[in-house]
Amino acid sequence: MSQQQDFADRPPWTRPAFIASAVLVLIVIAAGALIAVLGTDDGRNNNADDAPPASPAPADPAPQSPDQALPTAIPTTAPDGVRWELVRSLPVPVSDTAGPTQVTGTTASGFARTPEGALIAAAQIGVRSGYSLGRDYWEPTMEHQFVPSADRDKLLELHRTSDAAPAAPGTQSQIAGFQYLSYTPDSAAIGLVMRAPSAGTPRYHVLTLTLLWRDGDWLMQAPPGGTWVSVNRNISNLTGIVEWGPR
User: Fold this and answer.
1) What is each CA distance from 132 to 87, 128, 139, 161, in whole angstroms?
2) What is the CATH number of the domain that holds 214?
3) What's the pLDDT score for residue 166?
4) What does the pLDDT profile of the chain (247 residues) look like in tens digits?
5) For residues 150 and 140, is the Cβ–Cβ distance under 8 A?
6) Does residue 20 lie in a domain region?
7) Residue 19 belongs to some domain of the structure
8) Do 121 and 218 form a contact (C-beta atoms < 8 A)?
9) Could you give the maximum distance between any two Cα atoms of the chain, in Å?
Protein backbone atom coordinates (compact mmCIF):
# COMPACT_ATOMS: atom_id res chain seq x y z
CA MET A 1 0.00 0.00 0.00
CA SER A 2 1.44 3.30 -1.17
CA GLN A 3 1.93 5.99 1.33
CA GLN A 4 -0.50 8.95 0.86
CA GLN A 5 1.24 12.21 0.26
CA ASP A 6 0.43 14.77 2.88
CA PHE A 7 0.25 18.31 1.46
CA ALA A 8 -0.79 19.77 4.77
CA ASP A 9 2.76 19.85 5.98
CA ARG A 10 4.16 21.41 2.76
CA PRO A 11 4.76 25.16 2.45
CA PRO A 12 1.74 26.88 0.91
CA TRP A 13 3.66 28.15 -2.12
CA THR A 14 4.43 24.54 -3.05
CA ARG A 15 0.87 23.46 -3.02
CA PRO A 16 -0.83 22.96 -6.45
CA ALA A 17 -3.77 25.28 -5.70
CA PHE A 18 -1.48 28.13 -4.69
CA ILE A 19 0.65 27.68 -7.76
CA ALA A 20 -2.41 27.69 -10.04
CA SER A 21 -3.73 30.85 -8.41
CA ALA A 22 -0.38 32.57 -8.76
CA VAL A 23 -0.13 31.67 -12.42
CA LEU A 24 -3.63 33.03 -13.01
CA VAL A 25 -2.74 36.31 -11.27
CA LEU A 26 0.38 36.67 -13.39
CA ILE A 27 -1.64 36.09 -16.56
CA VAL A 28 -4.17 38.77 -15.54
CA ILE A 29 -1.40 41.24 -14.72
CA ALA A 30 0.35 40.60 -18.03
CA ALA A 31 -2.89 40.96 -19.97
CA GLY A 32 -3.65 44.25 -18.21
CA ALA A 33 -0.21 45.59 -18.96
CA LEU A 34 -0.56 44.62 -22.63
CA ILE A 35 -3.97 46.34 -22.87
CA ALA A 36 -2.56 49.47 -21.26
CA VAL A 37 0.34 49.57 -23.72
CA LEU A 38 -1.91 48.94 -26.72
CA GLY A 39 -4.43 51.47 -25.47
CA THR A 40 -1.76 54.14 -25.16
CA ASP A 41 -0.46 53.44 -28.65
CA ASP A 42 -3.99 53.37 -30.08
CA GLY A 43 -4.75 56.69 -28.40
CA ARG A 44 -1.70 58.22 -29.93
CA ASN A 45 -2.50 56.76 -33.32
CA ASN A 46 -6.14 57.80 -33.17
CA ASN A 47 -5.21 61.35 -32.24
CA ALA A 48 -2.73 61.47 -35.08
CA ASP A 49 -5.30 60.09 -37.53
CA ASP A 50 -8.04 62.46 -36.33
CA ALA A 51 -5.87 65.60 -36.45
CA PRO A 52 -6.16 67.41 -39.79
CA PRO A 53 -2.97 67.54 -41.82
CA ALA A 54 -0.97 70.65 -41.20
CA SER A 55 -1.25 73.19 -43.98
CA PRO A 56 0.94 76.20 -44.55
CA ALA A 57 -0.50 79.48 -43.34
CA PRO A 58 -1.87 81.56 -46.21
CA ALA A 59 0.44 84.30 -47.30
CA ASP A 60 -0.67 87.82 -46.53
CA PRO A 61 -1.93 89.54 -49.68
CA ALA A 62 0.32 92.19 -51.08
CA PRO A 63 -0.77 95.65 -49.95
CA GLN A 64 -2.82 97.46 -52.56
CA SER A 65 -3.40 101.12 -52.99
CA PRO A 66 -7.10 102.06 -53.32
CA ASP A 67 -6.18 103.86 -56.52
CA GLN A 68 -4.08 101.03 -57.95
CA ALA A 69 -6.70 99.74 -60.39
CA LEU A 70 -7.99 103.15 -61.50
CA PRO A 71 -7.09 104.22 -65.04
CA THR A 72 -4.66 107.11 -65.35
CA ALA A 73 -3.67 107.02 -69.03
CA ILE A 74 -4.25 110.48 -70.47
CA PRO A 75 -6.15 110.44 -73.78
CA THR A 76 -4.22 111.69 -76.77
CA THR A 77 -7.26 111.65 -79.06
CA ALA A 78 -10.86 112.74 -78.65
CA PRO A 79 -12.75 110.25 -76.43
CA ASP A 80 -14.98 107.78 -78.23
CA GLY A 81 -18.69 107.45 -77.56
CA VAL A 82 -19.28 111.13 -76.78
CA ARG A 83 -22.38 112.93 -77.99
CA TRP A 84 -23.06 116.63 -77.69
CA GLU A 85 -26.28 117.98 -76.20
CA LEU A 86 -27.44 121.57 -75.95
CA VAL A 87 -27.69 123.41 -72.65
CA ARG A 88 -29.73 126.31 -73.89
CA SER A 89 -27.57 127.37 -76.84
CA LEU A 90 -24.26 125.79 -75.74
CA PRO A 91 -23.25 122.19 -76.58
CA VAL A 92 -21.85 120.01 -73.76
CA PRO A 93 -20.41 116.47 -73.93
CA VAL A 94 -22.24 113.40 -72.62
CA SER A 95 -20.87 109.85 -72.38
CA ASP A 96 -22.55 106.61 -71.33
CA THR A 97 -19.32 105.47 -69.64
CA ALA A 98 -17.82 108.73 -68.32
CA GLY A 99 -20.95 110.65 -67.32
CA PRO A 100 -22.85 112.59 -66.31
CA THR A 101 -25.25 110.08 -64.78
CA GLN A 102 -27.51 112.62 -63.04
CA VAL A 103 -28.87 115.57 -64.99
CA THR A 104 -31.42 117.99 -63.58
CA GLY A 105 -32.94 120.96 -65.31
CA THR A 106 -29.79 123.04 -64.77
CA THR A 107 -27.04 120.82 -63.25
CA ALA A 108 -25.15 117.68 -64.27
CA SER A 109 -23.19 115.37 -61.93
CA GLY A 110 -22.02 111.79 -61.57
CA PHE A 111 -18.76 111.52 -63.50
CA ALA A 112 -16.42 108.55 -63.78
CA ARG A 113 -13.16 108.55 -61.82
CA THR A 114 -11.16 108.41 -65.04
CA PRO A 115 -9.31 110.94 -67.20
CA GLU A 116 -12.31 110.99 -69.58
CA GLY A 117 -14.67 111.50 -66.64
CA ALA A 118 -12.62 114.46 -65.42
CA LEU A 119 -12.57 115.96 -68.91
CA ILE A 120 -16.34 115.75 -69.34
CA ALA A 121 -16.84 117.08 -65.80
CA ALA A 122 -14.61 120.08 -66.65
CA ALA A 123 -16.69 120.78 -69.76
CA GLN A 124 -20.09 120.31 -68.14
CA ILE A 125 -19.35 122.20 -64.92
CA GLY A 126 -17.34 124.88 -66.71
CA VAL A 127 -20.11 125.67 -69.18
CA ARG A 128 -22.91 125.52 -66.62
CA SER A 129 -21.07 127.86 -64.24
CA GLY A 130 -20.70 130.52 -66.91
CA TYR A 131 -22.57 133.76 -66.38
CA SER A 132 -24.07 133.68 -69.87
CA LEU A 133 -26.44 130.77 -69.11
CA GLY A 134 -28.23 132.61 -66.33
CA ARG A 135 -28.48 132.40 -62.57
CA ASP A 136 -30.61 129.24 -62.53
CA TYR A 137 -27.57 127.44 -64.01
CA TRP A 138 -24.47 129.00 -62.47
CA GLU A 139 -25.76 129.38 -58.91
CA PRO A 140 -26.66 125.73 -58.12
CA THR A 141 -23.61 124.56 -60.08
CA MET A 142 -21.24 126.69 -58.01
CA GLU A 143 -23.00 125.92 -54.75
CA HIS A 144 -23.00 122.12 -55.16
CA GLN A 145 -20.29 121.27 -57.69
CA PHE A 146 -17.47 123.56 -56.64
CA VAL A 147 -15.12 122.80 -53.76
CA PRO A 148 -16.14 125.12 -50.90
CA SER A 149 -13.55 127.87 -50.51
CA ALA A 150 -13.14 131.63 -50.19
CA ASP A 151 -12.48 131.78 -53.95
CA ARG A 152 -15.75 129.98 -54.65
CA ASP A 153 -17.63 132.39 -52.40
CA LYS A 154 -15.97 135.36 -54.14
CA LEU A 155 -16.96 133.98 -57.56
CA LEU A 156 -20.56 133.60 -56.41
CA GLU A 157 -20.57 137.11 -55.02
CA LEU A 158 -19.26 138.61 -58.27
CA HIS A 159 -21.93 136.79 -60.27
CA ARG A 160 -24.72 137.81 -57.91
CA THR A 161 -23.77 141.47 -57.94
CA SER A 162 -23.05 141.74 -61.66
CA ASP A 163 -25.35 143.99 -63.65
CA ALA A 164 -24.23 142.62 -67.02
CA ALA A 165 -26.85 140.93 -69.13
CA PRO A 166 -26.33 137.26 -70.10
CA ALA A 167 -24.70 136.82 -73.50
CA ALA A 168 -26.96 136.45 -76.49
CA PRO A 169 -26.94 133.11 -78.36
CA GLY A 170 -24.22 132.93 -80.96
CA THR A 171 -21.92 135.29 -79.07
CA GLN A 172 -20.50 132.72 -76.65
CA SER A 173 -17.28 130.71 -76.89
CA GLN A 174 -17.66 126.99 -77.54
CA ILE A 175 -15.45 124.02 -76.72
CA ALA A 176 -12.88 123.30 -79.43
CA GLY A 177 -10.32 121.04 -77.75
CA PHE A 178 -8.44 120.08 -74.60
CA GLN A 179 -5.00 119.65 -73.13
CA TYR A 180 -4.26 117.69 -69.94
CA LEU A 181 -1.78 119.46 -67.71
CA SER A 182 -1.81 116.79 -64.98
CA TYR A 183 -3.95 113.88 -63.84
CA THR A 184 -4.23 111.56 -60.85
CA PRO A 185 -7.32 109.74 -59.54
CA ASP A 186 -7.64 112.54 -56.97
CA SER A 187 -7.03 115.67 -59.04
CA ALA A 188 -6.93 116.87 -62.61
CA ALA A 189 -5.76 120.05 -64.29
CA ILE A 190 -7.18 120.41 -67.78
CA GLY A 191 -6.86 123.17 -70.30
CA LEU A 192 -10.28 123.49 -71.90
CA VAL A 193 -9.83 125.20 -75.25
CA MET A 194 -12.63 127.54 -76.30
CA ARG A 195 -13.22 129.02 -79.73
CA ALA A 196 -14.50 132.57 -79.64
CA PRO A 197 -17.11 133.53 -82.24
CA SER A 198 -15.40 135.27 -85.10
CA ALA A 199 -16.22 136.00 -88.73
CA GLY A 200 -12.56 135.93 -89.71
CA THR A 201 -9.55 134.07 -88.37
CA PRO A 202 -10.56 131.76 -85.51
CA ARG A 203 -9.63 133.04 -82.08
CA TYR A 204 -8.99 130.66 -79.20
CA HIS A 205 -8.48 130.92 -75.49
CA VAL A 206 -7.70 128.29 -72.86
CA LEU A 207 -9.31 128.02 -69.45
CA THR A 208 -7.13 126.03 -67.02
CA LEU A 209 -9.66 124.16 -64.90
CA THR A 210 -8.77 122.22 -61.76
CA LEU A 211 -10.95 119.39 -60.51
CA LEU A 212 -10.73 117.43 -57.27
CA TRP A 213 -12.31 114.06 -56.48
CA ARG A 214 -14.57 114.62 -53.48
CA ASP A 215 -17.36 112.46 -52.04
CA GLY A 216 -17.56 110.20 -55.07
CA ASP A 217 -17.55 112.82 -57.83
CA TRP A 218 -15.43 115.46 -59.57
CA LEU A 219 -15.82 118.97 -58.17
CA MET A 220 -14.45 122.16 -59.70
CA GLN A 221 -11.95 124.33 -57.84
CA ALA A 222 -12.78 128.00 -58.17
CA PRO A 223 -10.18 130.20 -59.90
CA PRO A 224 -7.87 132.27 -57.70
CA GLY A 225 -9.54 135.45 -56.53
CA GLY A 226 -12.87 134.21 -57.89
CA THR A 227 -12.20 135.50 -61.42
CA TRP A 228 -11.88 133.41 -64.58
CA VAL A 229 -9.42 135.91 -66.01
CA SER A 230 -6.78 134.48 -63.65
CA VAL A 231 -6.88 131.08 -65.40
CA ASN A 232 -7.50 132.26 -68.97
CA ARG A 233 -4.91 132.71 -71.73
CA ASN A 234 -5.18 133.34 -75.45
CA ILE A 235 -3.65 131.08 -78.09
CA SER A 236 -3.35 131.67 -81.81
CA ASN A 237 -3.82 128.10 -83.05
CA LEU A 238 -4.45 124.51 -81.94
CA THR A 239 -0.87 123.27 -82.05
CA GLY A 240 -0.43 120.70 -79.28
CA ILE A 241 -4.18 120.67 -78.61
CA VAL A 242 -6.46 117.65 -79.04
CA GLU A 243 -9.34 118.95 -81.12
CA TRP A 244 -12.67 118.08 -79.54
CA GLY A 245 -16.10 119.58 -79.90
CA PRO A 246 -19.47 119.31 -81.62
CA ARG A 247 -19.43 118.61 -85.32
Assistant:
1) 11, 9, 12, 14
2) 3.10.450
3) 72
4) 444 444 344 444 344 444 444 444 434 344 444 344 444 444 444 444 455 555 455 444 444 455 568 999 999 999 999 999 999 989 999 999 999 999 998 999 999 999 999 999 999 999 999 998 999 999 999 999 999 999 999 999 999 998 777 777 778 899 999 999 999 999 999 999 999 988 788 899 999 999 999 999 999 999 999 999 999 999 999 999 999 999 8
5) no
6) no
7) no
8) yes
9) 163
Cα(245)–Cα(247) distance, rounded to whole angstroms? 6
Instruction: Tell me how far apart the alpha carbons of residues 10 and 16 are, in angstroms, rounded to a whole number.
Output: 11
- Among residues 118, 115, 86, 88, the alpha carbon closest in space to that of 100 is found at 118
Alpha carbon distance 16, 12 (integer Å): 9
Range(s) of the domain holding residue 148:
82-243
Identify the helix (H) or strand (E) that includes residue 45: helix 16-50
Structurally, the chain folds into a number of domains equal to 1
pLDDT at 44: 45
d(CA 210, CA 224): 11
d(CA 86, CA 159): 23
In order of 92, 168, 175, the CA distances from 85 in angstroms are 5, 18, 12
Instruction: Judge whether 24 lies within some domain.
Output: no
Residue 114 · residue 71 · CB < 8 Å: yes
* Phi (first) and psi of residue 113, to 5 degrees: -85, 65
Residue 142 falls inside a structural domain = yes
Ordered DSSP codes for 43-110: HHHHHHHHSPPP-PPPPPPPP--TTTTS--PPPSSPPTTEEEEEETTEEEEEETTTB--EE-SS-EE-
Residues 211, 126: contact at Cβ < 8 Å? no
